[in-house]
Amino acid sequence: MFKFGKDEVKCSGCRACELICALHNKKECNPKEAFIKISGNFPEPGGYDMKILRGCTLCGECIRICPTGAVFEKPVKEAQ
Ligand code: SF4
Ligand code: SF4
Question: By three-state DSSP, how is residue 5 classified?
């Protein structure tokens, strides 16, 4: 089990995460079907908002494909 970590500064806006999420979870080549949403903070250059939407299965595919490490696994702290 893991929690989602995201670092918007590292995101290049390539949107590979959206595509792999939609392919893996919905069997559709349609980034709009993804549980991760990348949107540009225009007019600021290079700024992206990253949102994880309800329904995310924590499959980890977006983490595996992200070329910049902008999404990553955060360990869940065990209850003491
Ligand atoms: S989170 Fe990673 S895979 Fe997704 S758009 Fe940003 S750089 Fe690309
Ligand atoms: S971990 Fe969530 S957002 Fe990432 S590919 Fe899987 S379902 Fe999509």
Answer: strand
